[in-house]
Design brief:
The protein has 33 helices and six strands. Among the domains are: 115 residues, no CATH class; 87 residues, no CATH class. It is 63% helix and 5% strand.
Length: 653
């Protein structure tokens, strides 16, 4: 069993995926629930039965090269592991994760006899003769496959042509997959591509119509099998039928994209479909479609690619095959599409999102086609409709047209301050940045003050302080900020040292972010930040009159004042310990122990060890029925060994 542990230790799902390939890995996950009698043999081989169209015996074990040897009695033979082998490896890894034992297999068991027979040693000798060839493959970075494939080659090597033909006919009559593979090969070799394309089109329609779902907790589900589609697309492309691949790929994209949108399978179907679409993308530049039409199809697909299925499209778009003329030819189609979109008002509407996507792609088309002068007029025409002010302002700033950028910031802020405050906040940030670029640091500080009043927080306070110190106005600003937190009145009268910002959030009262004024929590944070520990404790006392224990500020205070005000820290931590123990959960007891350790340090540093002992005694007396808690308390004093006094108390087993 130790050999099995070593094999599986550190093995991740990604490792298995890379070893088996995405398609076989996805198929293997669907067979996890079909694995039975998982066992291991004395040489460190994992074995199991896997149910499919038949019961198959599968095995897998590590080899000397850091990979795996594998075997399975199923008919799959494509130079790599089958889905049954992957399922066995996944189940074994799950057993190890859960610390479940895997039994040793009896050599007399049917599973053992199915996999291992007297010819095994002879087969291994034949594999060793090919060892040098394997080394060459590894040196070239090619995958090395050992095990069943090598033994089958050895068995077939001595058979005559008639024997091989009879064997293939027999296998084709018994296994539909074999018959289909032979038929596909024949059609490709004979040039009967139209028939193969029709058949593959039917399969695409059937597979994309399946419901895709997977429950990882129960190891059950339905994962559409795209492996044959991927294989046939690759074969068609290899034989030079790029047009056929693209024709099939268009339908695969449209139907598969819809299927993924309704799937619930942790992205497994999306990955399998993406592998097929990689072949379609590879076929596109080899097809008879004109380059401009290829480019337009790619752009339109990427506009609709919500699930990142077209992973290879980006590299193709960057290739030099698409010239400025090709990009220029695409522009009218996108312009017409943008004109057709209705674009409902509202930043969250789907139509607006879609229109924005078209706009961004049209901007790229203009840049790639050498028509950069059209970008800003397009963005200006779309800014109000799509609330795409940020994109426009960024483009204007890059063009060093700061005046127009400022005007659009002001306009955009006014349009979005109420219905899209996130956009408005970022536009105000752009105004602040431009003020800094112009050396107007008093205006920068004014914007930092707006940020703090809108969202009081430690970070925005520090940013305001840094900006105000730069213009030597921090003393006045600080007093007004603290007053605002106490009273709820927003600073900005005649005594306010900062200029009026170009834009302000509507409404006179500041948002505290954590309740109405006085914002005691923020006042405490500032006092801690400024090392005014007496003030922090005083404010905290007022704060705690209307708040329960356990908030984040409680622990900030406790950590900060442990030396200056130890009783405050001890009070906070003791309340936390009581709350955790009340949950009556082992995990909560462990968390409580962490706070008790903090308390122990405070008691020790302040020479109050008797109080610590009294605390432990009270906890033991009050919670003596909680055996797991007693063990933790014992470990805090005496290194885990209970004292004679503690053993006198009642214990429950």
């Amino acid at each position: 069993m130790e050999m099995i542990r070593k094999m599986l230790q550190g093995l991740t799902l990604e490792d298995i995926r890379e070893w088996a390939g995405r398609t076989i890995y996805n198929r293997g996950r669907g067979y996890v629930g079909q694995v039975s009698q998982l066992s291991w043999t004395s040489d460190g081989t994992l074995v199991a039965w896997v149910s499919g169209s038949d019961d198959y015996a599968a095995s897998v074990r590590p080899d000397s090269k850091g990979s795996f040897d594998f075997d399975c009695t199923c008919p799959y033979d494509h130079g790599g592991p089958c889905k049954h082998v992957v399922a066995v490896l996944l189940v074994a890894a799950d057993h190890l994760k859960k610390n479940q034992e895997i039994p040793l297999l009896d050599p007399e068991d049917d599973l053992y006899l199915e996999l291992f027979d007297e010819s095994e040693d002879e087969d291994e000798d034949e594999e060793e003769e090919d060892y040098g060839e394997d080394e060459d493959e590894e040196a070239e970075g090619l995958p090395v496959v050992r095990g069943r494939s090598s033994r089958i080659e050895a068995l077939l090597a001595g058979k005559s042509r008639d024997d091989l033909e009879s064997l293939l006919v027999d296998l084709a009559s018994r296994f539909p997959e074999v018959a289909r593979r032979i038929q596909d090969m024949g059609q490709l070799e004979s040039g009967q591509v139209a028939k193969l394309v029709r058949s593959l089109g039917q399969e695409i329609r059937r597979v994309t119509a399946e419901e895709a779902w997977y429950n990882p907790w129960k190891h059950e589900g339905n994962l559409p099998d795209y492996s044959h589609i991927e294989e046939q697309l690759r074969a068609l492309l290899h034989k030079g039928h790029a047009d056929a691949v693209f024709q099939l790929g268009r339908e695969l994209w449209e139907r598969g994209n819809q299927q993924v949108g309704h799937s619930h399978d942790e992205g497994e179907t999306a990955m399998a479909l993406s592998s097929c679409l990689e072949i379609v993308i590879e076929a596109l530049p080899k097809s008879s479609l004109k380059a401009a039409e290829q480019l337009l199809w790619l752009v339109e697909c990427l506009l609709a690619d919500e699930f990142d299925l077209l992973t290879g499209a980006g590299d193709l778009l960057e290739s030099p095959r698409f010239t400025q003329d090709h990009w220029r030819a695409v522009a009218p189609a996108l312009e017409a599409r943008l004109k057709r979109e209705t674009g409902q008002k509202g930043a969250d509407s789907f139509d607006t999102y879609r229109r924005r996507g078209i706009m961004h792609w049209l901007c790229r088309v203009y840049v790639e086609s050498g028509q950069k002068q059209k970008v800003i007029p397009l963005l200006e025409a779309e800014a109000d409709r799509n609330q795409s002010y940020e994109t426009l302002v960024e483009a204007l700033r890059k063009a060093e047209d700061r005046d127009r950028a400022r005007q659009w910031c002001l306009r955009g802020f006014e349009k979005t301050a109420k219905e899209a405050p996130g956009i408005a906040h970022r536009l105000r940030g752009a105004l602040r940045e431009m003020a800094g670029e112009e050396g107007r640091f008093d205006l920068v500080a004014a914007y930092r003050a707006e940020d703090f009043f809108d969202h009081p927080a430690k970070d925005s306070f520090l940013e305001l302080r840094q900006a105000a110190e730069k213009i030597q106005a921090w003393h006045q600003v600080r007093e007004r900020v603290l007053d605002s937190l106490r009273t709820g009145k927003r600073a900005g009268d005649t005594n306010w040292p900062l200029p009026e910002p170009e834009v302000k959030t509507p409404g006179a009262a500041p948002k505290t972010g954590r309740g109405k004024a006085p914002n005691l929590e923020m006042l405490i944070e500032i006092a801690l930040l400024e090392k005014r520990l007496d003030d922090a404790v005083a404010i905290y006392r007022d704060y705690h009159k209307t708040r329960r224990w356990g908030s984040g500020i409680d622990h900030q205070v406790a950590e900060a004042v442990a030396q200056s005000h130890p009783d405050v820290s001890l009070e906070i931590w003791k309340s936390t310990v009581d709350s955790l123990i009340a949950q009556v959960k082992p995990k909560a007891y462990q968390e409580a122990a962490a706070y008790l350790k903090k308390m122990l340090k405070v008691y020790q540093k302040s020479g109050r060890s008797p109080e610590w002992q009294a605390l432990l005694l009270n906890l033991r007396t009050e919670h003596r029925a909680k055996r797991r808690l007693m063990e933790i308390l014992n470990s805090l004093e005496g290194g885990g060994q209970p004292s004679a006094e503690r053993e006198k108390g009642p214990r429950r087993t």
